[in-house]
Design goal:
Blueprint: E1 2-7, E2 11-18, E3 21-28, E4 31-35, H1 52-88, H2 92-115, H3 119-133, H4 137-145, H5 147-159, H6 175-186
Antiparallel strand pairs: 1-2, 2-3, 3-4
C-alpha cells in the first residue's frame, strides 16, 4: 500500500493506492475527507405511448440510431486523425493527396455497409455527425473537399429530401435522438 501526502497551507491531500485502486482524500483541520468522482447520471422521464403505432415508431428510431451512431463515432475519430495529420502537412497538394488517400480507405472499408443504410438512417447519421464533430456535414465537405464538392453532394442529398446543412438540436427536434445516444453510451440500450 502506498500513501503520499502533499501539504499546503491549511490542508493536506492524500493519495492512497492499493490493488490498483486509487483513493484521494483531503485532510482539513484534522478531519480526513475522501474525495471521489462519479459519472454523470441522466434521468429521463418514463416513456408513455398513446398508441401502439407511436411505440413502434420509437422502437424504430432506437434501431436507426443504433445503426447510425457507430458511423458517427468513426467519423469523429477519422476527422481527428485528419486534423492532426493536416498540422504536419505544409502544402495544399499534400493535403489533397492525403484526403484522397483517406477517402479511398474509407470507401474500401465502409462503402458497402453505408450503402445499406436507409434514407432515414442517413438523415440520422448526418445529425449525429454534427453532434459528434460540431460541424455540419456540408461544412466538413466544404472544408475537406472544397465548395464545388459540398454543393454537389448537397444537391444530391436534397433530391432525397435530406439536408447536409442540418444541425443537431439536442433540446429541440433531436431530443429523442440525443436521449437514445446517451442511453447507448451508458449501456442502457
Amino acid at each position: 500500500m502506498m500513501v503520499s501526502i502533499t501539504g499546503t497551507k491549511s490542508q493536506d491531500t492524500i493519495r492512497l493506492e492499493k490493488d490498483n485502486v486509487v483513493l484521494y482524500g483531503l485532510i482539513l483541520d484534522g478531519d480526513t475527507l475522501l474525495l471521489s468522482t462519479i459519472d454523470e447520471v441522466y434521468i429521463f422521464p418514463e416513456r408513455r405511448f398513446s398508441s401502439r403505432r407511436e411505440y413502434r415508431r420509437y422502437r424504430r428510431l432506437i434501431r436507426n440510431v443504433k445503426k447510425a451512431y457507430p458511423y458517427a463515432k468513426l467519423a469523429k475519430r477519422k476527422f481527428d486523425q485528419i486534423t492532426a495529420q493536416f498540422e504536419t502537412l505544409n502544402s495544399e497538394k499534400a493535403k489533397k493527396a492525403y484526403i484522397k488517400q483517406v477517402e479511398k480507405e474509407i470507401k474500401d472499408e465502409f462503402e458497402g455497409e453505408l450503402k445499406k443504410l436507409t434514407i432515414t438512417q442517413g438523415r440520422i447519421l448526418i445529425k449525429l455527425i454534427d453532434r459528434e464533430i460540431g460541424e455540419t456535414s456540408y461544412d466538413l465537405l466544404k472544408e475537406l473537399r472544397g465548395s464545388f464538392s459540398a454543393f454537389f453532394w448537397q444537391a444530391v442529398a436534397r433530391l432525397f429530401g435530406t439536408n447536409l446543412k442540418s444541425e443537431f438540436d439536442p433540446l429541440g427536434e433531436d431530443r429523442l435522438i440525443n436521449e437514445i445516444v446517451l442511453m447507448i453510451e451508458r449501456g442502457a440500450l
